[in-house]
Amino acid sequence: MTNNQENVIERLKSAVDDRLLLPAVIELLIPNGRPYETETQLFDYKLKAPILSATPGKEEKEAHKIEIAELVKDAAAFHNAFGGYIVFGVKDKGRDRIIGFDAEFNCADFNKTLQRYTGTNIECLYNTISFKSQDGAAVSVGILLVPRRVSGAPPVKMQRRGPEKSAGKYCFGEDIYIRVRDECRPATNTHEDWDFLHSDRLPPQREHESEKKHVQSFLPARDEDFLKFVGRAEDLANLRQWIADPRSPTRLITGIGGLGKTTLAYHFAEEVVEVGAGGVDAVLWLTAKQQTYSALRGKMVSTTRVDFADARSLFEKLLQFLNHEIPIDDDEPTETELIDRVVEALSIYPALIVVDDLDSLPPADQKEVAAALNGVALRTVGRDLPASRILMTSRLDQGLPLTSIIKISGLEKDEFSIYFENITKLFELGAFEKSDVGKIFKASSGSPLFATSIARLIKLGENRSEVIEKWQGADGEDVRSFTFGRELSRLTNLQTRILYATMLLGATSLEDIAEVLDISARVVRDQISELQAYHLILTNIRRGGDSVISVPDELRAVIGLVRENLAGGAKPVEESVARANAKGGENEKTIGVSIRSIARAWAEGRVDEALVDAAELKRKFPSNADVASMLGAALLRVRPPKFKEADLELSRALNLGCKRPEMVLNVIGAKTGIEDWPGIRDYTANKISNDFSRDVALSAYISASENLIKISMERGDISRASDISIEVIEKISAKIRRTRIDRAFFEDLSQKRFDAARLYMDCIERNNARAGDRIRVFEAVYRLAVADVLLTEIIQKGLNSLKAWWSDVEMRPVVDVAACDILHKMINKLDGIEARMASIYPEAPVIQKIQETRKDLEFKGAMLQAALG
């Protein structure tokens, strides 16, 4: 960058801070009527501003929504950085770049939209300025001034993601954006951007005012095994976003031992101290860890300090850090009083509190302490001072909600390669072949602790080609015992048997484990829940919908430890698994050949012959789920189809646990044939598909519901028809929210949803014709809004119904305070409808009608309440 360019940048920083929107600014942005070749952190050229025509069509409205959102992202990014100017009427590239712009851009409306997305009032300014272009022609451009975020103010974060631009791509996510050079990007992805986000960002004439927030550090000395921090970019971005959110004050980093939970927490804590994020005054570190495994030394070592051993000692240590201890002459406080005292201290001195290795505590104390810490953090939210944050590390999830948990696993392959290179340099081992590093990565499952342990064995003289095999044997027992020993020691005998059976079976099912161990599936399911809390069991869903149970790759290295824990109980499990494998192999081979033969007969049109073969196969294997499924399918293919018999066989197949992918179509076909509409609804109610172009189960559910609605209406059962209608609506909305779907399928589902919504409203209105009952009509409209059905005609009905109900209330001879309480709840629901409408259709005229209705009802409610005394 030349001295002249640097001078322009510094002058632009000053102009932004002085809120200048005068012709003099044009000379900085378009010197001598010629735009710069590249944009910078201080300005952005745009061809035009987002403005709707007088009579916009649907496509224009969608395009406008995206253009506004892109401008919102730019403005938020500029605001979080130095502020800046957005110039309308200038092309980014090419010849004759100055096009000009003199249309009316409504800056006030844009600021409102910006506030809706960010939750922050950013007062942008706008002006149209005329000047002479390079060729001397008079031209006007529009200039939007985005102010700089005040130093020390919390960063502006997008409160929700922007509209969808293309398949699965959104204008922006729920991130904190900054302007760097000519790019708007999330500030939490790199340390450099995050540090810049929390800097003063002052213009040159005010740099003397810089007062970077000092965060007091109570971090312990770094662990002796701590190397240069590598990877974890996604986890760090997650933590940086978290500390910027004042209403979500707790996080737990969890995962098996040896993955670097403490390292991640320590690195993040150092970042907070360095950049001053989250508005905290101090970073406190407390640990219950008494011993840890040093991979560099190959043994357990004592930690440098232990801060607490139970809840009481934890809160006493916190008070000591915060200089808020209980006076000696006071009676010994209860644990509740200690917690109150901690909250009181944090109301004066907000802090980031890191509680490391929570599961060093006795099992009975861990969840109690985690819950107490979470409660402390929540009590600091919503005050004038910033909320305090609590970050915990633990191998268990401690019963916290999934939204508060950051689960880490081994390093990614590229990150692992960098980490291992650092280890080899430390041990002076020389370079490794890429293939050898790949083998070590696979053996260690990306665990930094495992990798260091393997490198240490090489340092002690083991051959590189044999080290992995030896590490997986006796030479790696100590580190594996540290990694999993604590978890394994706390398992019951039954849990250990289930874990061992899963390791022997490989990818398996809940039913297979239950059969091998001769216990009920319910018992297995309950115990697997406990094993998952220790991260010892994984459950994955295959494409066909099957649930597959397995163990993490890194756990396979400790099968010997698991067997040792079972002692004499290991052999019976091994024998049961061997018998199941032998039996399954023999039967599966015979059944597989027969099933392929039946499928071949179908393909060749020999459906009657296929039915005979399927019936014979059932005689041989009456308890096999796949055989029952094939017989049911064969009964559907004959002419005429035998729907009733097919339904019976397919029901048997389901009861036997059949998970074949064609079952869904076959069951729906059989039940459609016998017109078992309730059966179809029950069967498809919990089926979930991520297919973006169709959903067989959902379509069947809707069709069956439509038939039941028709029957209900013919019988005059209006209530039943309305109940089914709203269930259909909520089912469709769940699908649309959950899965990205293509346009044709979306339009089809939307139309069905609107049709069901109109029928639902018709039923509700017919059942609640009296004015005093019209509140139920409004509540139905609110339920539709929650399900994302926001039709102007329906919302208007809701508003009219709410006003009619209140008019009826006012005419009653006796009115009590309860009616005012109900009105207050309805007004809250009205606010909810407005918020949803504004988030999707911010310019909809009905929003003004909602606001007018709310004001009118609030006034009338207040008048009535005053009259009641």
Task: Describe it.
With 869 residues, this protein is α/β, with parallel strands linked by helices. It is 54% helix and 10% strand. The chain is built from 32 helices and 18 strands. The strands form 6 sheets. The chain has a 6-stranded parallel sheet with strand order 9-11-14-15-10-16, sandwiched between helices. Strands 1-2-4-3 form a 4-stranded mixed sheet. Strands 5-6 form a two-stranded antiparallel ribbon. Helix 10 links the parallel strand 14 and strand 15 (389-394). Helix 21 packs antiparallel against helix 22, helix 22 runs antiparallel to helix 23 and helix 23 (643-655) packs across helix 24 (663-673). The chain starts with a helix and ends with a helix.
Topology:
Layout: H1 3-17, H2 23-29, E1 43-46, H3 58-80, E2 84-88, H4 107-118, E3 125-132, E4 138-146, E5 164-166, E6 169-170, E7 177-180, E8 183-186, H5 191-197, E9 216-218, H6 233-243, E10 250-254, H7 261-275, E11 282-287, E12 291-294, E13 299-302, H8 311-321, H9 335-346, E14 351-356, H10 363-378, E15 389-394, E16 405-407, H11 413-427, H12 434-444, H13 448-459, H14 467-472, H15 477-489, H16 493-505, H17 510-517, H18 521-533, E17 538-541, E18 547-550, H19 559-566, H20 570-603, H21 607-620, H22 625-637, H23 643-655, H24 663-673, H25 677-684, H26 696-715, H27 718-738, H28 743-767, H29 775-786, H30 792-811, H31 817-840, H32 846-867
Parallel strand pairs: 1-2, 9-11, 10-15, 10-16, 11-14, 14-15
Antiparallel strand pairs: 2-4, 3-4, 5-6, 7-8, 12-13, 17-18
Protein name: Schlafen AlbA-2 domain-containing protein
Domain Schlafen AlbA-2: 59-187
Organism: Paenirhodobacter populi
